[in-house]
Specification:
The chain has about 190 residues and is of the alpha+beta class. The protein is about 30% helix and about 30% strand. A hairpin with a 7-residue loop joins strand 4 and strand 5.
Protein backbone atom coordinates (compact mmCIF):
# COMPACT_ATOMS: atom_id res chain seq x y z
CA UNK A 1 0.00 0.00 0.00
CA UNK A 2 1.21 3.47 -0.86
CA UNK A 3 0.31 6.19 1.64
CA UNK A 4 -0.61 9.52 0.12
CA UNK A 5 -2.11 11.21 3.15
CA UNK A 6 -5.52 12.89 3.27
CA UNK A 7 -6.32 14.65 0.00
CA UNK A 8 -9.53 16.57 -0.57
CA UNK A 9 -12.09 14.19 -2.11
CA UNK A 10 -15.49 14.98 -3.61
CA UNK A 11 -18.70 13.17 -4.47
CA UNK A 12 -21.92 14.48 -5.97
CA UNK A 13 -23.13 15.73 -2.57
CA UNK A 14 -20.07 15.74 -0.32
CA UNK A 15 -16.65 17.20 0.22
CA UNK A 16 -14.22 15.12 2.25
CA UNK A 17 -11.45 17.33 3.63
CA UNK A 18 -8.87 17.52 6.38
CA UNK A 19 -10.00 18.58 9.83
CA UNK A 20 -9.66 22.32 10.46
CA UNK A 21 -9.09 24.03 13.81
CA UNK A 22 -12.71 25.11 14.39
CA UNK A 23 -14.33 21.81 13.37
CA UNK A 24 -14.33 20.60 16.97
CA UNK A 25 -17.21 22.96 17.81
CA UNK A 26 -19.73 21.46 15.40
CA UNK A 27 -18.34 17.97 16.02
CA UNK A 28 -19.04 18.29 19.73
CA UNK A 29 -22.47 19.79 19.12
CA UNK A 30 -23.57 17.32 16.43
CA UNK A 31 -21.96 13.95 17.19
CA UNK A 32 -19.31 13.81 19.92
CA UNK A 33 -21.62 14.29 22.91
CA UNK A 34 -24.53 12.10 21.77
CA UNK A 35 -24.67 8.69 23.50
CA UNK A 36 -26.76 7.29 20.62
CA UNK A 37 -23.92 8.15 18.23
CA UNK A 38 -21.34 6.05 20.08
CA UNK A 39 -23.50 3.10 21.17
CA UNK A 40 -21.59 0.72 18.88
CA UNK A 41 -18.13 2.32 18.95
CA UNK A 42 -15.02 1.65 20.99
CA UNK A 43 -14.87 5.25 22.21
CA UNK A 44 -17.35 7.04 24.44
CA UNK A 45 -19.00 10.42 24.35
CA UNK A 46 -16.97 13.56 24.94
CA UNK A 47 -17.93 15.10 28.26
CA UNK A 48 -17.06 18.64 27.17
CA UNK A 49 -16.19 20.74 24.14
CA UNK A 50 -12.64 20.97 25.54
CA UNK A 51 -12.24 17.20 25.21
CA UNK A 52 -13.31 17.37 21.56
CA UNK A 53 -10.92 20.28 20.96
CA UNK A 54 -7.97 18.34 22.41
CA UNK A 55 -8.79 15.28 20.28
CA UNK A 56 -9.21 17.32 17.10
CA UNK A 57 -6.00 19.29 17.77
CA UNK A 58 -4.11 15.99 18.14
CA UNK A 59 -5.64 14.69 14.91
CA UNK A 60 -4.63 17.86 13.06
CA UNK A 61 -1.03 17.36 14.26
CA UNK A 62 -1.14 13.78 12.98
CA UNK A 63 -1.52 15.05 9.40
CA UNK A 64 2.27 15.49 9.45
CA UNK A 65 2.40 11.69 9.21
CA UNK A 66 1.41 10.66 5.69
CA UNK A 67 -0.17 7.50 7.08
CA UNK A 68 -2.96 9.55 8.67
CA UNK A 69 -6.14 9.46 6.63
CA UNK A 70 -8.97 11.31 8.36
CA UNK A 71 -11.64 13.43 6.70
CA UNK A 72 -14.44 15.72 7.81
CA UNK A 73 -17.57 14.93 5.78
CA UNK A 74 -19.08 18.19 4.60
CA UNK A 75 -22.26 18.85 2.61
CA UNK A 76 -21.33 20.42 -0.71
CA UNK A 77 -24.48 22.55 -0.86
CA UNK A 78 -23.76 24.56 2.31
CA UNK A 79 -20.27 23.54 3.59
CA UNK A 80 -21.84 22.11 6.76
CA UNK A 81 -19.77 19.36 8.47
CA UNK A 82 -22.03 16.36 9.16
CA UNK A 83 -19.53 13.75 10.29
CA UNK A 84 -16.15 12.23 9.67
CA UNK A 85 -14.47 9.18 8.23
CA UNK A 86 -11.02 7.82 8.91
CA UNK A 87 -8.91 4.79 8.17
CA UNK A 88 -7.51 2.42 10.77
CA UNK A 89 -4.05 1.42 9.58
CA UNK A 90 -3.65 -1.54 11.93
CA UNK A 91 -3.24 -4.01 9.06
CA UNK A 92 -1.80 -1.59 6.51
CA UNK A 93 1.46 -3.53 6.25
CA UNK A 94 -0.70 -6.23 4.64
CA UNK A 95 -2.39 -3.60 2.48
CA UNK A 96 -5.68 -3.99 4.38
CA UNK A 97 -7.48 -1.12 6.10
CA UNK A 98 -10.72 -0.53 7.98
CA UNK A 99 -12.86 2.62 7.81
CA UNK A 100 -14.42 4.25 10.80
CA UNK A 101 -17.13 6.82 10.32
CA UNK A 102 -19.69 8.80 12.24
CA UNK A 103 -22.56 10.85 10.84
CA UNK A 104 -24.61 13.35 12.85
CA UNK A 105 -27.87 11.66 13.78
CA UNK A 106 -30.15 14.04 11.87
CA UNK A 107 -28.39 12.92 8.66
CA UNK A 108 -28.77 9.17 9.23
CA UNK A 109 -30.48 7.17 6.52
CA UNK A 110 -29.71 9.64 3.72
CA UNK A 111 -26.83 7.69 2.16
CA UNK A 112 -24.03 10.02 3.26
CA UNK A 113 -22.01 7.34 5.08
CA UNK A 114 -22.22 5.07 2.03
CA UNK A 115 -21.27 7.89 -0.33
CA UNK A 116 -18.26 8.91 1.78
CA UNK A 117 -17.13 5.31 2.29
CA UNK A 118 -17.36 4.52 -1.41
CA UNK A 119 -15.31 7.59 -2.29
CA UNK A 120 -12.60 6.75 0.25
CA UNK A 121 -12.62 3.16 -1.01
CA UNK A 122 -12.14 4.38 -4.58
CA UNK A 123 -9.22 6.59 -3.52
CA UNK A 124 -7.54 3.74 -1.65
CA UNK A 125 -7.93 1.14 -4.41
CA UNK A 126 -7.05 3.45 -7.31
CA UNK A 127 -4.46 5.78 -5.81
CA UNK A 128 -2.94 3.87 -2.88
CA UNK A 129 -2.85 0.33 -4.29
CA UNK A 130 -4.92 -1.09 -1.45
CA UNK A 131 -5.56 -4.85 -1.53
CA UNK A 132 -8.41 -5.28 0.98
CA UNK A 133 -10.98 -2.89 2.47
CA UNK A 134 -12.70 -4.49 5.46
CA UNK A 135 -15.05 -3.65 8.28
CA UNK A 136 -16.29 -5.17 11.50
CA UNK A 137 -19.47 -3.94 13.10
CA UNK A 138 -21.73 -4.98 15.95
CA UNK A 139 -24.67 -7.01 14.69
CA UNK A 140 -27.31 -4.67 16.13
CA UNK A 141 -25.72 -1.75 14.28
CA UNK A 142 -28.00 -2.27 11.30
CA UNK A 143 -27.08 1.07 9.71
CA UNK A 144 -23.40 0.15 9.43
CA UNK A 145 -24.35 -3.22 8.00
CA UNK A 146 -26.38 -1.50 5.30
CA UNK A 147 -23.47 0.80 4.45
CA UNK A 148 -21.14 -2.18 4.01
CA UNK A 149 -23.64 -4.04 1.81
CA UNK A 150 -24.22 -0.95 -0.35
CA UNK A 151 -20.45 -0.71 -0.74
CA UNK A 152 -20.54 -4.24 -2.24
CA UNK A 153 -18.66 -5.80 0.67
CA UNK A 154 -19.03 -9.53 1.29
CA UNK A 155 -19.66 -11.00 4.72
CA UNK A 156 -16.65 -13.04 5.78
CA UNK A 157 -17.95 -14.27 9.07
CA UNK A 158 -19.54 -13.71 12.42
CA UNK A 159 -17.40 -13.46 15.52
CA UNK A 160 -19.92 -14.69 18.04
CA UNK A 161 -20.55 -12.89 21.32
CA UNK A 162 -17.30 -10.98 20.73
CA UNK A 163 -17.96 -7.57 22.26
CA UNK A 164 -20.37 -5.35 24.19
CA UNK A 165 -22.18 -2.21 23.15
CA UNK A 166 -22.24 0.82 25.46
CA UNK A 167 -25.37 -0.55 27.19
CA UNK A 168 -23.49 -3.72 28.15
CA UNK A 169 -25.37 -5.95 25.68
CA UNK A 170 -23.21 -8.76 24.27
CA UNK A 171 -22.90 -8.46 20.50
CA UNK A 172 -21.79 -10.59 17.60
CA UNK A 173 -19.19 -8.86 15.48
CA UNK A 174 -19.86 -9.13 11.74
CA UNK A 175 -16.82 -9.06 9.47
CA UNK A 176 -17.13 -7.87 5.85
CA UNK A 177 -14.65 -6.99 3.12
CA UNK A 178 -14.01 -6.25 -0.52
CA UNK A 179 -10.75 -7.01 -2.32
CA UNK A 180 -9.10 -4.97 -5.05
CA UNK A 181 -10.03 -7.59 -7.66
CA UNK A 182 -13.68 -7.59 -6.54
CA UNK A 183 -13.75 -3.80 -6.55
CA UNK A 184 -12.47 -3.61 -10.13
CA UNK A 185 -14.92 -6.29 -11.34
CA UNK A 186 -17.81 -4.24 -9.96
CA UNK A 187 -16.42 -0.86 -11.10
CA UNK A 188 -15.29 -1.54 -14.65
Amino acid sequence: MIFKGTPRLETDRLILRKIESNDYKIAYEQWCNDPEQVLYTVHGIHKSEDVTKRVYDRWIEQYNDEKTMRWIIELKENSLPIGMIDINNTWSKYSSVEPGYIIARKYWGLGYATEATMRVMEYLFKECELETFYSEFMEDNIGSGKVMKKCEMTQEGCLRNRCEDKNGKRQNLISMSITKDEYYKINK
